[in-house]
Amino acid sequence: MQGTVDGFSYGLVTPLVAYLMACLGGALGLRCTTRSMLVTRSWRPGWLALGSAAIGSGIWTMHFIAMMGFTIEHTPIRYDWLMTFASLAVAVVMVGVGIFIVGYRGVRGTALFTGGTITGLGIASMHYLGMAGMRLDGQLTYNTFTVAVSVAIAMAAATAALWAAGQVRGFLWSVGASLVMGLAVTGMHYTGMAALEVHLHGTTDPSSGGSPAELLAPMLIGPLAFLLLAGVVVLFDPLMVMGKPVVVPVERKPGIPARAQAPRPVRHPAHHPSHRTRRPLGHRRPRTPQNR
């Protein structure tokens, strides 16, 4: 039996909130990526890791907020806890790999393409792994072409967002990049949901797993708390808005000069024959001997 799928049970509330969550996670993550390009290499891994966790938490939270409005007629939906939180780990790790590539190799050429591709695949993997954690009295099937389109949307928009974040041109560029990232996640999600078909068995209700309402509390307490903490870190960092590089002070150690200076050349006045010292005429000796 074909199940009737409704992805907008609460109207536009869940898509709008989901999009805002994706933009929030993208804004924090991309600003951290931009910040990593302005600091020394010793601080760079910390900022990149924070950005990866922010983007991963944002897209994961977006996915399950959108799934709150997803219902299937004649069957309740449950979620496997292990598979659900495994999708969060996959999102953070794969997005982190893409961000680290861009953070260390730059936002040009092969590095940008590789980082954007891996980040987009991380978004898609999180979505379909989360969908695999659904438990219902039926079977899920997908249209292959629509799934491929959803993955392509995620990869293209993630690449564009990373490129915009790597320009380091101020706060507005990061806002625009976060809007693109939010569009990537939300567009990929609903394109993937359009590829879904449900075939109900009509036997019994699923007994294992948690309901969407039961997943909402840990989803808000965990990733949203982290996003709030990351937002505080980003907000109180003065260079995040100014977009200026860090001035690294010169390290002074005993016995080591602070800066090697080239010796200044000593200029001597030019020697010209005309500059010889001449005696007064009265003190000159005659060239011929005098008889005394």
UniProtKB/TrEMBL annotation:
Keyword Ribosomal protein on entry: no
Domain of life: Bacteria
Region: Disordered, residue numbers: 257-292
Record keywords: Membrane, Transmembrane, Transmembrane helix
Listed name of the protein: MHYT domain-containing protein
Domain MHYT as annotated: residue spans: 10-199
Feature: compositional bias, Basic residues: 265-292
Transmembrane segments: 12-34, 46-70, 82-104, 111-130, 142-164, 171-195, 215-236
InterPro entries: MHYT_dom (IPR005330)
